[in-house]
Design goal:
Layout (H helix, E strand, L loop, with lengths): L2 H15 L2 H6 L2 H12 L15 E5 L3 E7 L8 E6 L2 E8 L16 E8 L10 E5 L2 E7 L12
Antiparallel strand pairs: 1-2, 2-7, 3-4, 4-5, 6-7
Length: 153
């Protein structure tokens, strides 16, 4: 065990020994925050850094194909952009029955944003997107650059 780890362990043990460790466990604010994860519906949580919408990514010698599941979304509510090594998809899923009281909600509704990073530079022309029955298929041509010989002057 290295010296830094030993020091952290000793500091932790001191807090535990003097009762300070348990102060945070029984603190009302701490307990409420910890319990929120069990009492809130997962559909109402913000989706920062989330994996919504779900995506499958394929590649061939000529293109990347990205398939995104966006149930309950209209194509007018989706925005797609591409820059350098990433594809950004953002939009909104409107609740189906917004005027009614909720008994249980598991399906996501609200704004979303997902960025997909590629292992190589993407972009250019001939990028296409097709929306059908809540599924978007995006085709991005791969850019193959031939080796250039650099002349030294």
């Amino acid at each position: 065990m290295d010296l830094d780890r030993m020091k952290k362990w000793l500091d932790f043990a001191k807090e535990f020994q003097h009762g300070q460790f348990w102060d945070s466990v029984f603190d009302k604010d701490y307990t409420e925050k910890a319990m929120e994860q069990f009492t809130q519906s997962s559909a109402s949580k913000p989706l920062n850094n989330s994996r919504f919408p779900l995506a499958d990514i394929f590649k061939s010698n000529h293109e990347f194909i990205i398939v995104l599941d966006l149930p309950g979304t209209r194509k007018e509510d989706i925005e797609i952009s591409i820059a350098d090594y990433s594809l950004n998809v953002r939009g909104v899923v409107n609740p189906r029955y917004s005027g009614m009281g909720k008994v249980q909600t598991e399906r996501f509704s609200g704004e979303f944003e997902r960025t997909i990073t590629f292992p190589e530079l993407v972009g250019g022309t001939n990028i296409s997107a097709k929306f059908d029955n809540g599924i978007i298929e995006i085709r991005i041509p791969r850019s193959h650059r031939s080796k250039e010989k650099i002349i030294i002057e």
